[in-house]
Amino acid sequence: MDSKYVIGIIVILIMALGAYEVYTHETSDKKITIADSTSVQSVAEKLVQAYRAEHPELK
Hints:
It is a single chain. By secondary structure, the protein is an all-alpha fold. The protein has one domain (3-54). Helices cover 61% and strands 0% of the residues. It is built from two helices and no strands. It has helices at residues 3-24, 41-54. It is rod-shaped and about 65 Å long.
């Protein structure tokens, strides 16, 4: 069997597994929690607003 053929099959399998992982991975359970004094609150709120503007599909 030609080595290019074998490498091609391996690459296709890796890509298929990667695509499967991306499309089946649940993102609803990921959360970021910032717990600190109120001095961080204004910065954290601005970061949340910027992140939500770039990712409107997330809550």
